[in-house]
Design goal:
mainly alpha, 3 domains, about 140 residues
Length: about 140
């Protein structure tokens, strides 16, 4: 494959890795966990197959008040949060995209500053923790 054909794939690679780590892996991990029984305090994991799903449809499973309460809370959360989040996001996007907005660069900077600043703060914190001379990690490793 020549380099001209490889460039689009290389540009998609970071997104594909991110998508795999934060979407595909948790999806399959939760599917695996649904076929196991986890002892919270014992720390043991036991494969139970479809027993968890069978228990859901056995006596008291889906008829349980806890099951339907959880479903109702989830439905309410979706019905209330999604329209509000979409409306607020769309309104902010329309406001920030307005050509007549005075001090547009200031507003855009103020809007995106928390996103950029949080990454910077975390980077500075890790630099302090991993500092060779006075970092917290070296201090803690000094006890061993």
């Amino acid at each position: 494959m020549n380099t001209k054909k490889a460039v689009p794939y290389l540009l998609l690679l970071p997104h594909a890795v991110f998508f795999g780590i934060f979407f595909i892996f948790p999806l399959f991990k939760s599917l695996y966990m649904s076929f196991t029984e986890w002892g919270l305090f014992q720390g043991m994991i036991r494969y139970v197959g479809l027993d968890n799903y069978a228990r859901l449809f056995e006596f008291g499973g889906y008829r349980s008040q806890y099951f339907w309460s959880a479903i109702w809370v989830t439905v309410q959360f979706v019905l209330y949060s999604v329209p509000v989040l979409v409306s607020v996001s769309l309104a902010l996007a329309l406001i920030l995209n307005n050509r007549k907005l005075k001090m547009k660069s200031f507003h855009l900077t103020a809007f995106f500053l928390p996103t950029a600043l949080s990454v910077t703060v975390v980077a500075v914190m890790w630099r302090g923790i991993l500092n060779v001379h006075s970092g917290l990690l070296n201090y803690l490793l000094g006890f061993f």
